[in-house]
């Protein structure tokens, strides 16, 4: 039996961005980049692990907005079109760089990557990557969990507990629709927890969730084993698992983290900004502005703008070295912990999935090497999922987790400060209005009114997405985040007035149903 276990958790999430009213839309690239650089590499990695007989465990959240986009035919079509554009560009780059050996082999690498991505997406998974993730989920090696319906930051929604419950329950229903059964676990958006949320999770059938380190360490009473064993919430019986800071720091830290090694690929040098505009113009968006195109020819090298050519073979070797270092540190960690615990310690290492491949290009290789090394190279620490650990060591600590998040300073400051505090008066008022509508129409037999009520749910949920407040705080794409918040709030208020007056504009309703078509099976009565 191993001395301890590692629960590696990847939080896969993107805000719902879908704009059928435009032929192409810049922010939809967030999804396309994540598919090519993160999600397809993950599926390829899992295929390879199974093919080579490696026993592995991994936990991954696939949030309802991400699942909705991956399953959407319009976005699937546009992703293939996006890949065809990149294949055309990479083909040009192979020719342009034929007298530059250091760059030419990278152009060939990207061309092969884009062609392979197209083949995997279209032929292997028939345009829907959820088919691949569901296959590994059903095998028991990949534990998939849900999230709130639109990644709403729940601690700032507890003014209306019905709205909190709607976020959780719709997230569970969407999970069941895509993966065939209710989820056991949930990723609370931004790891945001406030007392009472666990009781909502219990009512929705959730068995466990994750919190940041101080959510457990400040628990009442203070847990005997700290973050190295799950805790049971006293009033609900739902299990909370706390993040291990040591393992997180090795990946996340801007100073000590692996992704900052000078050998790895530089994210911020992209041909979309480096090459001649007229050469690139056929491959840019219709609005004509420069953007990242995914072909990056330089390694981090060091501080400053001057960079050396990227060497993928050296970067791959460095990823293997870093995986070995991470495993060694976990071995020593569990050896030290095991002597003072009556059960094997559990080390929770959660990360944003898009870090691996998108921001840290070699990240999927690092996970691949890590899982292989942990299977074949040692016996002290093994990967596990939370349900497996709970089934093995069911009796655990009982403690009430503290209010917490994994945002800067650990509470709500990222999502509630000067740049974004104006949104909450609207979100709170609209949540109350949604409950009012649901109570007034408990069993609505009018098809048009029912459509309007369901669309009002969608608009409220989309306005509640924590992504918009986060973007306003961080200062990237702020105009888009503000516009999305205002659009959904205004749409909701228009629907509210039309429903109250029984004067529903069906032509306008058709338009917003087409644009904001998330959650096809939504039932507004959840707010009753």
Can you offer a commentary on this structure?
By secondary structure, the chain is an alpha/beta fold. It has 2 domains: 4-71 and 128-265 and 310-406, 7-stranded beta/alpha barrel (Alpha-Beta Barrel), CATH 3.20.110.10; 418-527, immunoglobulin/albumin-binding domain-like, CATH 1.20.1430.10. It has 19 helices and 10 strands. The protein has helices at 29-51, 64-70, 73-96, 101-124, 130-139, 161-179, 197-203, 213-217, 245-252, 271-274, 277-280, 312-338, 363-376, 386-392, 423-440, 447-463, 466-474, 478-501, 506-515, and strands at 4-12, 58-62, 142-147, 185-187, 208-211, 231-232, 239-242, 346-352, 381-383, 397-398. The radius of gyration is 24 Å and the shape is globular. The model has no long low-confidence stretch (mean pLDDT 97).
N-to-C order of helices and strands: EHEHHHHEHEHEHEEHHHHEHEHEHHHHH
Question: Helical element count?
Answer: 19
Total of domains: 2
CATH fold annotation of the largest domain? 7-stranded beta/alpha barrel
How many individual β-strands? 10
CATH superfamily of the largest domain: Glycoside hydrolase 38, N terminal domain
Kindly report how far apart the N and C termini lie: 50 Å
| Mean pLDDT, all residues | 97
